[in-house]
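Data availability (excerpt). The following record was deposited with the supplementary files.
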Amino acid sequence: MKPERGAEPVATIAALPFHEVLLIGALRARCDGPDEMAIFATELAALYGEGGAARLLDRLDEFLGLTLRHVRRPVMRHGQKCSCVGADEAVLAHLVTISTSGDREDAMLMACLLVRADVAPIVVSLAQTLGLELLRTAPVAPRFPAMPSETLH
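Predicted structure:
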């Protein structure tokens, strides 16, 4: 049985930039239900702190909520632990990347692949807001114990 075209693997999680991996994780968690979304929110808080995570979750909710309500066809996705990235997942994550870079025309074309044309400008605007929040909110630096060393740098 052939998988749906939107689920065709086009990349691996390891090959993507961190913010796109985060977006794909958010999509998968949201589609899997409130329990998975709560786990995702906890992981986000560990990375970005409570305040940063709350802002990112708000932006993710706006972007994914509107996008998923107005899709042209169901968005195909892989499982939460899958290392593959499906075509639909890649397009959604890359939409945020190109919206943030200021390439609005390409972002509009990509948005029109996902949603109705009348909703595309709003989706691009929300994608840009989300992308800028991701750039603005730096992950909390991990705290490693001081390691004794004979070499000083």
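Summary of structural features: The helical segments are 18-32, 34-69, 87-100, 104-114, 120-136.
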